Amino acid sequence: MRIIGIDPGLARVGYGIIEIKNDKKILLDCGVIETGKEKKEEDRLYEIFKDLNELISHWKPNLAAVEKFFFYRSSTTISVVQARGVIMMVLASKKINISEYSPAQIKLTIAGSGKASKKEVLDAVMYNLELNKPPKPDDSADALAIALTKLNEEGFN
User: Fold this and answer.
1) Which end of the chain is more exposed for a tag (fewer CB within 10 A), N or C?
2) What is the pLDDT of residues 9-37, one digit of tens each?
3) Where in the sequence is the active site?
């Protein structure tokens, strides 16, 4: 089984891909899809669409976990929601089962507290995946935490 965890954004979409093999969690890939601020918004959304399609075609995940978006008073709210829509559309078009989790759910599942710090979540990601150094950038570590939340729900803790 392979899962892709996704931390949505317009400037940066974090992703993490984990495989379960012989009851062991194996990190296959993680990183970010970055879109340049100098580009028009529609071009940035298309870049997310294109790059996410390529990732999925390459890694062929069976499951997807996406962080739920909470509305904040911000000038980027609509852009992030649009990027999330593109992400959900790509996953649905590939017939990948999608689960969504709030930040508090992810923190609770991964670090044991819905109010866990970034460092506590990062430490839990490193522990769960037996990593010697933290995944970079932070958006990819967040995406791995999202994927691990789904795996925990599936019984792989």
Assistant:
1) C
2) 999 999 999 999 999 999 999 999 999 99
3) 7, 67, 139
CA 130 to chain centroid: 19
Strand partners, 31: 15
What's the residue count for the chain? 157
| Contact between residue 128 and residue 148 where contact means Cβ atoms under 8 Å apart | yes
The residues carrying an active-site annotation are 7, 67, 139
| Residue 7 in marked binding region | yes
Tell me the angle at which helices 138-153 and 118-128 cross, rounded to the nearest 10 degrees: 60
In the chain, what are the domains?
2-153 (3.30.420.10)
**Which pLDDT does position 22 carry in this prediction?**
93
Question: Sheet holding 24-34: strands in order across?
Answer: 24-34, 12-21, 2-7, 63-67, 97-101
In this prediction, residues 115-125 reach a mean pLDDT of 95
Q: What is the rounded CA–CA span in Å between residue 89 and residue 53?
A: 10
Tens digits of per-residue pLDDT, 126-150? 999 999 999 999 999 999 999 999 9
Q: Identity (one letter) of the amino acid at 24?
A: K
Question: What DSSP character marks residue 88?
Answer: H
